[in-house]
Amino acid sequence: MQDPAALLIAFEEASETPIRPEYVEGTVIVPSAPNDDKHNDGAGDLSFQFHAAGFRLVGMGNGYRAAHKDGRTMALLIPDFYVRRRKATELDESYRRAHKGWYPIDMITLVGEVTSTNHETDTGPKLRTYAAAGVPAYVLINRRRKTAHCYSDPITPGDDPTEAYYATEVKVDLGRPLPLPSPYPTLETAPFLEPTE
Fold first, then answer.
1. pTM higher than 0.85
2. What CATH number is associated with residue 117?
3. Is 68 among the domain residues?
């Protein structure tokens, strides 16, 4: 089997426009269109809320690799935003070089996605993959359904990562505050509401 990281590099090089492909559940996912401003502004606003609450290891844009127990690549993911548990160490940077630009996913303690054209990816395969990788909390802004979710307490029954899930879900309508598990702040979701005239 071809190295998934090399496969994504080949997709990037073949594209006429800049793309950020991901590898999830054995499938290369290439966004059909760039994210719109509402998506990007909203993800940025959520990141700012973490910064304002004192979380300094918040970021956007880096890629993370999840591995199976035997070391094979399970997924290569680029979250819309994330909170790290640590700054990148020399070991993390060495891992990133060895894996063609992908940091280890165990650096992340909370991950967030905002749906756009990839609605099914964020609500299905990515949710399961983050749970299988043991990411403690997953924030999902579902713009299609106009809901915000916080998933926590990841569980992987057996060895199949596609069966992973989060045991706890908090769900609110967009515009309502989204409570997160301690030590995180409650997130304001109003920036995702469509303006009314």
1. yes
2. 3.90.1570.10
3. no
